[in-house]
Amino acid sequence: MQMRGDTGPAGRPLIIPVFIPHMGCPHQCIFCNQRAITGKAAQTPSPQQIQEEVNRFLRYGKNKPSTTQISFFGGSFLGLEKGTILSLLEAAMPFVRRKDVDSIRFSTRPDTISQESLSLLDRFPVSTVELGVQSMNDRVLDAAGRGHRAADTVVAAGMLKEHDYQVGLQMMVGLPGDDDDGAMETARRIAALRPNFVRIYPTLVLKGSLLAGRLNDGSYHPMALESCVTLVKRLYLYFKLHDIPVVRMGLQASDGLTRAGDFIAGPYHPAFGHLVHGEIVFDAISSALGRMEKRPDPLTISAHPGMVSRVQGLNKQNICRLKSAFDIKKIALLQDEYLAKDLLVVAEQQVVLP
């Protein structure tokens, strides 16, 4: 079956963001302060603003992307009033007609998906819909003030697939009342829905959120960064095992968290995904060294040039940790462009990365 938005051979896509901060959402989730994340007050972008933003991104392109999409996110798209939904979609259409943009995508809440709401999209080239799932545990959803149930996600994902949309599911770790086992159970239930991709976000405490009050009164304790990286690593490997791409892990500085006072506490790091991938590589090399009867010193590790930073780890932490853990005085990291990116050579032993 041809999926909406299929583009053939994989390449680097261009996703043009159009923010609709905290619009269309009737609930105040405990972790949410959309203004802190986007830096914008809640307002509907005008057609002129959308045109300016899309043109600004289109001018950036040096190489032709595999596909170009206009993405409405930051709020709950299908929770908007019908007229607003249609106005936003119409504002994107001139770029599609000129073939500057291939399709449209948006994020929304699971409980906004219905036959009626999806019928609004019929005459527009919407290809991808992301659902803010956060958890598949109703108790955790209640504690977070989400206002929807896990069953809503199951129904919504099934309905979107029936309409041939590409489906992305977003989950969070570290929510009040959740733990590592609960997060893994959410991952299992998400994987059973067979999404096209997932995103994994840590719970952060933002200025102006209800969670900030919980932090202040001591009733909420955010995850430590190291613990969060370890958990997200497990989740990433689980989804990878089930052939579900994880397209993002963690919030980045570009999400607006660099403004003074917006971020209060929690496992934030601007290179969160890099930390996760570095941990995966560290584990693989450690496992290979653990199987060796005699470890050479100096130790040579060969990797594709594109994998060197992951082998080294952030600030070369992996190299330092390997030296300390295995009592190795020198590690030589060699670049080999003929190696596959998922293959390392550790002291002449091939190591396939998970």
Q: What is the averaged pLDDT score? A: 91
What is the CATH first-level class name of the domain at 14-170 and 178-198?
A: Alpha Beta
Low-confidence stretches: 1-10, 36-41
Strand order of the largest sheet: 1-2-3-4-5-6-8
Shape: globular
The third-level CATH topology of the domain at 14-170 and 178-198 is TIM Barrel
Question: How would you describe the overall organization of this protein?
Answer:
The chain is of the alpha/beta class and 354 residues long. Among the domains are: 14-170 and 178-198, Aldolase class I (TIM Barrel, Alpha-Beta Barrel), CATH 3.20.20.70; 293-352, no CATH class. The protein is built from 12 helices and 13 strands. It has helices spanning 34-38, 47-60, 82-97, 115-119, 138-144, 150-162, 180-191, 210-216, 225-241, 272-290, 308-312, 317-326; strands at residues 14-19, 68-73, 103-108, 126-134, 166-173, 197-202, 205-206, 246-249, 263-265, 299-303, 331-335, 343-346, 349-352. Strands 1-2-3-4-5-6-8 form a 7-stranded parallel sheet. A 4-stranded mixed sheet has the order 11-10-12-13. Helix 2 packs parallel to helix 3 and helix 7 packs parallel to helix 9. The longest helix has 19 residues, at 272-290. The two termini are 29 Å apart. The model is unreliable at 1-10 and 36-41 (pLDDT under 50).
